Amino acid sequence: MYSPDSSSYRSWIARIPLPWISVFVGLFCGLIAWLIIDPFKTRELGEFFQDDLESRLEIRAADTRRRFEYFLTDLDEETQNLAQNWRLVRHVYSKKWEQSEEKTFVYFNQPSPWMEQGFPLRGSVEPSHVLLLDLDGNPREVYHQQDQPFPIDLALELFNDQLIGVTTTLWQVPYFITWAEIASGAREKRAILMLVMPINEKFLSASQQYAGLEGIVIGLFEGDQQKLLASSEINQVGPASHLNDWEEEYLITSQALALYLAPDNNVQFFTFVSRSRLAAKLDYLLSSVRQERFFEAFVYVAAFTITFFLISSRLSHILRRISTFSHNALGIEQKIPGRGNQLLLLENRLQELFQQVSYVKDETKVAQEHRLRESEALKSALLDNSLDPIITVDNKGLIVEANVTAEESFGYPREQLLGNPIDLLVIHPRDHLLIREMLTRCREKETLLKLCQAKKMLSIDAYGSEKPIECSVMPIQLKERTVFTIYLRDISERAKAEKRIQSLAKFTSENPSPVLRVNNRGVIIYANIASAPLLEYWGCDRGQTLPLFWRNLVFDAMQDGLNREHEINLDEQIFSLLTVPVLELDYANLYGRDITQVRTAEQQSRQHQSELVHVCRLSTMGEMATGLAHELNQPLSAIINFASGCVRRLQTGMGGEAELVDAMAQITVQAERAGEIIKRLRALVGKRPQEHSVVNLNHLVLEVASFVEYVAEKHHVDITLQLSQGPLAAELDLVQIEQVLLNLVRNAIDAMKHVEIDHRKLELVTRKLGEDQIEVLVKDTGPGIPADNIEHLFDAFFSTKESGMGMGLPISRKIIESHHGKISATSELGRGAEFRVVLPSDPNLKLAGF
Amino acid sequence: MNNKPTVFVVDDDQAIRSSLKWLIESVAMQVKTFESADAFIENYYPGRSGCLLLDVRMPGMSGLELQEYLAEQRITIPVIIITGHGDVPMAIRAMKAGAVDFIEKPFNDELLLESIRHALLLDEQQRDKQSQKAEIATRLARLTPREHEVMAMVTGGKANKEIASALGVSAKTVEAHRARVMEKMQATSLADLVRMAMLANITLGANV
Question: Which residues of A touch B29 (CB under 8 A)?
Fold first, then answer.
């Protein structure tokens, strides 16, 4: 920018209005031009004038000489005229010089008698000597004003030489000598008049009388010795001085006098022009020219300056308007000065504008850079903080960029990653081909710039451990090349999660109970393996619709959103199907439960109940007594417990009424239960008439065998059935005979308790004994019955068992005997026992159901 | 789960179960019933305080068999046997197997509740002892082998001088060891230390 000095200088300048500056500048330029041009011009003019003046002086000098010569000529003519003067003529005619010999009359300081008033010569020149000569040239009368008389010889010599008008030097003074013949008309010549005039100051001045000398000194000098003889200004230029002495002071021009020169003389004419005068004249000339020039220059400068002034004031006005406009446009609040240098002000304005623009530009640039940096930082943060490794590779698969996660997860420092091929570095060798193929494919499709589909592969890190990854490639078109950004998502977690989900899914698929999912149209969209029997029963498969009944069930459930449970009875299995509608997803789940066991158990329990009655009926008194004691104990205990609980609650005041009522009800129930047992006991104990029916004995034995199967298995007793071919029909009390057989079988099982497990064998045999008898054998491999005991086997209250009451076999015998049969036992001690029941049979009997 | 002792009832008869629950709850005890020994095993968390009322005769695993199983699993919950058949051999078997009591149906409520209280007290003591044992064991673990030796000798009734000569160190050193043992075992007195040693079943003075 500007230094404070220059800016203060500027502000100072800015205060001066533009027109004034233009005036200053105009004048200043004029002055400079003047100072440059003037000396040069002056010198040139000086030289010119000098030459001119000198040439004019030369002409002037020539003029002065000519005038001097004309003057001499005039004097000569005047002398001729004077010779005609009548007084002179009379004087001369009065004289008779021929008679007197050699007689010269000299008259000193005496005016000539014929010219008393002086000689009327031009310029009032006075002759210093006046001579009258005779025709032979002898002077007769000499009149002179000066001390020295005129040398006669000279006059004679001049006369003889016929020289008229001669300048010569006498007594170191130049003289002009002229003569004329004195004649009077037709009269003969009588004498000659000779006038000698000294060429002095007066003479010289007179010679120039019409022109005037004006500072010019003229005179004569002796050519050989260069000595001055006479001058027009004796005060200035004294005679007898040397010509060279004056050269400094005067400009000297010398000219030879062509006429009127004495032959022995070398008198020359000179003109002195004062150098100072000349210089003054030159100066005057120059100064007058310069004045003129100056005026001219001034006029020019003034004209231009005024023009500039006008233009600049107009310009200033325009600039001010521009300034104001830009000021308003820029929105500067500071008031612009109305006066001053509008150009500078505008420049300031412009500068401000440029500054603002550049500031705004800088600002924008900075902001842009900032934004760029920010976005870069954000991007790099995104990149770096990405949980996935991101690697950028070039066309050849060499890594050009990698984020921090990549470094960390593959365990390579950045510098080791960069420049190395990605496949060799971080991809398991198994998948090298795969990633290269991906890159190649992406390169081919690079115009599409789409993320190549993610592929699962294995990565390998610096430590050699492998991880499942999902690799996706994104081509990025740069200016000159294409790079590929590779996202390597670690999917080991996902794989685990998938496995978890899969394992969760196995809950249903592995579920041993049927699980199905049905959509709102009744189509099975899922069925686990365990549903196979159901599907088979329904005769449909996955993707097909349920049978109508079930479909309606599902629709109903989805209608009201309530669960429904329904049983389905397959041939071998019974399922309970719970329909659970999932309304928000528009389908229903069906959960099957194999309730075969439950139902069987229930059935068995029911069977058991009837069997209990059965058993009670079958059991002998002793067994019954023990059984009944336990049976009765249960409800009694319960009753006591309930009652005690009630008492305690009532005592302590705890427990609600409803609770107590409930407990009381329980007491009633238990009491009823006890009563039931007593009733059964009575029924058993009480005499019951025999109910005879035709029965297949084999059937009976099978039933008994299946009845004890559970107990037998528990005691590891192997039951073998050896039944007769064909039915063994007999008319008998089914319940009673069953009781007998069951008793025998139970005894046999009990007998084998202490035998080795492998040797516990029970054999049931049925066969015909002739036409009218049938037989049942119950064989065991127990310890056998000692011979002593066999006799008492069928006696009442004989028992070898701990808990036995000894009532079983006697009752059995009673029953068999009431059927006209026989019961007997045989035993081989240590090998086992065999009980035999023989019953009468009638081959004509018809078996029901056969 | 709260730490309130629970009376676990195992009986196959639903009426017995609910009536027992009704009775025992009347004295503000927590009751949990199971219909079979298996159901109990499946649902019992070892470590829960309480006692077990066990019917001897049940389909499936019998009460005695469950008792055996618990002993096998080192579950020390006190067991009260209840039975409808008051046969002596079975009672003897049950008591031998560690049952706390043997009660015949139908029971006297007073007798039963008394028996239950007794069993719960026993359980608490047992637990207390157990935790004490554990505490002592952790304290013992902090002892150095030499300190261990010293402790065994001290609780075995040996005097410092005897110990010193036995270990071949000065009496002063033994004194220092002993002080550190007392400190580490947090024993207030020698008697306290001996009690701990007995609880922890340290063979007293075994090495001498």
Answer: none
